[in-house]
Design brief:
By secondary structure, the protein is an alpha/beta fold. It is 18% helix and 33% strand. Strands 1, 2, 3, 4, 5 and 6 form a six-stranded mixed sheet that branches. Strands 7-8 form a two-stranded antiparallel ribbon. Helix 1 runs parallel beside helix 2. It is globular. The two termini are 24 Å apart.
């Protein structure tokens, strides 16, 4: 899974001109599920979202407090387009994104773990697979990318490097 976190003073989601969710000070989380992701990645990402230090402390020290430390709010929005590949041509390729039901289940699990890790009433959600209007006032601006990549499969080759003497080493 991957996510873009934006520190905000406010954010909201509207679907078909109806306000669905809104938050005050906190973080907007645009979250995407990859085709090889599991519950392990979803849980790891939820934990990182809540623990990431994005605010200063009361003494002015930067990057000292998390969203939970400041009693902020979290707005999670599903965003499969984060897995776009644009290496060939001008049309994005989304083959790295998880498909429909797999994506929905893992996104819902990510949302559940985020709510369980904080306070259910402080974690809001958009509408999965809907065309959403997402509005935000970025605070800073502060925008951070997070990745919770699945483990490399046993069938994948082990990365190697070659030193100056030509000896191949496992990385």
């Amino acid at each position: 899974m991957k996510a873009i976190l934006q520190r905000v003073t406010s954010a909201s989601v509207t679907v078909e001109k109806q306000l669905v969710s809104q938050i005050g000070r906190g973080i907007l989380v645009l979250a995407a599920v990859g085709k090889d992701d599991t519950r392990r990645e979803a849980e790891a990402l939820a934990s990182k979202v809540l623990k990431l230090k994005l605010w200063p402390d009361d003494e002015g020290g930067t990057w000292k407090r998390s969203v939970t430390d400041i009693s902020g709010e979290v707005l999670c929005v599903s965003q499969f387009t984060l897995y776009a590949v644009t290496k060939k041509g001008n049309k994005p390729d989304f083959h790295r994104s998880a498909g429909g039901e797999q994506a929905r289940q893992l996104y819902d699990f990510f949302l559940q773990k985020t709510q369980e890790g904080y306070r259910h009433d402080r974690v809001k959600d958009g509408v999965f697979a809907a065309m959403m209007d997402v509005a935000l006032v970025n605070d800073g601006p502060v925008t951070v990318e997070l990745n919770a990549d699945p483990p490399i499969s046993a069938s994948a080759p082990t990365p190697t490097s070659q030193d100056d003497a030509g000896v191949v080493k496992r990385m």
